[in-house]
TrEMBL record:
SUPFAM superfamilies: GntR ligand-binding domain-like (SSF48008), Winged helix' DNA-binding domain (SSF46785). Residues 207-231 are annotated as: Disordered. Residues 220-231 have a biased composition (Polar residues). Pfam families: FCD (PF07729), GntR (PF00392). This is Transcriptional regulator. The lineage of its organism: Bacteria, Bacillati, Actinomycetota, Actinomycetes, Kitasatosporales. Gene3D superfamilies: GntR ligand-binding domain-like, Winged helix-like DNA-binding domain superfamily/Winged helix DNA-binding domain. InterPro entries: GntR_C (IPR011711), TF_FadR/GntR_C (IPR008920), Tscrpt_reg_HTH_GntR (IPR000524), WH-like_DNA-bd_sf (IPR036388), WH_DNA-bd_sf (IPR036390). It comes from Streptomyces lomondensis. CDD domains: WHTH_GntR (cd07377).
């Protein structure tokens, strides 16, 4: 049975994000086909997709290689997420379904419970599921796709420190869901913007000097008016 190219693409992307393939390393069709137990055809299709996503580049005389993003390109990703996640939350307030709300509320309850108990092992994956569901609730496949790609690339380029206040972080998740449930687009947008700004400060670039990383984090943040959120 022919394995779909999108399954091969997911496997290669996951390995790039996990650091199995280093930045700049070659990705030969033969070795990839052998690793994933497939023919070279789905590998070739997967590499084309990953090149379009920015994970892979084709170099003369070398073929497909893992991309080597610059610090500015990495900073741009965080800025894009800070702009698009609030938009997605605002759209979700208008378009969410009861099924979306049920999942979001369940994730918030679970996240808050784990945070109170100090059980942080699952909080990162729960947070990922929360934001993925929130993006899906926007009712915009294009926006959901862009946000999914951003999450993959940010996970590849950055390490994320555990939040100093996980209970507060999940309280913000709860406030986002409350606004979405009420259909309050502006509130959903504002709370999500504040949450995204705080989350950005926990990101540390996987490459570059410590000083450059600190400058990049400071420069990528934008002031958010928090006065209206304290109620």
């Amino acid at each position: 049975m022919r394995i779909p190219a999108h399954s091969v693409c997911t496997a290669i992307r996951d390995d790039i994000v996990a650091g199995v393939y280093e930045r700049g390393s070659r990705l030969t069709e033969e070795l990839l086909a052998r690793r994933y137990g497939v023919s070279r055809v789905p590998v070739r299709e997967a590499l084309r997709t990953l090149e379009a996503e920015g994970f892979v580049v084709t170099r003369r005389h070398a073929g497909a290689c893992v991309a080597e993003p610059t610090e500015q390109e990495a900073a741009d990703l965080l800025e894009m997420r800070m702009l698009l996640e609030p938009l997605g939350a605002a759209r979700a307030a208008q378009r969410r379904t009861e099924a979306h709300l049920k999942v979001l509320r369940g994730l918030v309850r679970l996240g808050q419970e784990r945070a109170r108990r100090g059980n942080s092992d699952d909080l990162r994956s729960l947070g990922g599921w929360f934001h993925e569901t929130l993006a899906q609730a926007s009712g915009s496949p294009a926006l959901t796709s862009v946000l999914t790609q951003l999450r993959h690339k940010i996970a590849w380029m950055y390490t994320v420190e555990a939040p100093a206040g996980p209970v507060e972080s999940w309280s913000e998740h709860g406030a986002i869901v409350d606004a979405v449930a009420r259909g309050d687009s502006e509130r959903a947008r504002a709370v999500t913007a504040l949450h995204a700004e705080r989350a950005t400060a926990a990101h540390r670039l996987r490459f570059g000097s410590a000083g450059e990383r600190a400058d990049r984090v400071r420069n990528s943040q934008h002031p958010v008016n928090t006065a209206s959120l304290r109620h």
